[in-house]
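Hey, I'm writing a tutorial for new members on how sequence and structure tokens pair up, and I'd like a real worked example in the thread rather than a made-up one. If someone can provide the structure for the chain below, I'll link this post from the tutorial.
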Amino acid sequence: MRLWPLGRFGKKAARLPLVGKAIGPLFWNEQNLDATYLPVGESVEVEPGSVLPYQIIEDLVGRASNRVLLNGCLCRTAAQCENFPVEVGCIFLGDAAADISPERGRPVDVDGALRHVRRAEELGLLPCVIHSSFDASLLGIDYRKMLAVCFCCNCCCTFRTDMVGGPEAYRERIIRLPGLTMSSVGDCGLCEKCARACFLGAVKVERDGPVFAEFCKGCGRCAAACPRRNIRIRLDPAVDTERVLLERIGSRTEIE
């Protein structure tokens, strides 16, 4: 926990233009960080028979050799979060998860892990599949045999809050779910709640409604914030979303 702020310090330093260009690609590249948000709200639209983002989590949890729940969220614990329970921590998957100290986490079966996922969803916490060498080093486990499913809050999650303002190399390691598109489908009330919900500043409300920047990560927070339910998240049926995502994960780490 004492080492946890080091990551945030490094990202803040890297926002300086010259520092960011020098160290950004060195610390945040495809070898040591990969993350994808999985929107699980009712605004997600898929064709009949297609996979939903929640099913992707189910498949990852089910195929993993081990599942360990951290006793608490490192970010919310460090920030003393007052908005969400600190005990709802990440799920670590794979052989390396078994090496996590019992003081930091406890093993669970598939049903226990999925109950944890559902509880996080009910609390409004956003699931993120993340493979981070920084997390592995803090926990003292093998980076190539682990994967985490984090449950992020906008207020405390260093992964989310540290993306605001850069560095760009860090932001680029959050990769949108394959085949996912965002759109506005109804009359916009111009309340701008969607824009305020976006941790990246990727949503701007114009005269005809919200416009999504190219670097939008498809997390779905804007759709959940819209009081008129006018924002929709769609998965292209021509893209095998789960296969593409799992192939990318599988090229980085082994969890079975």
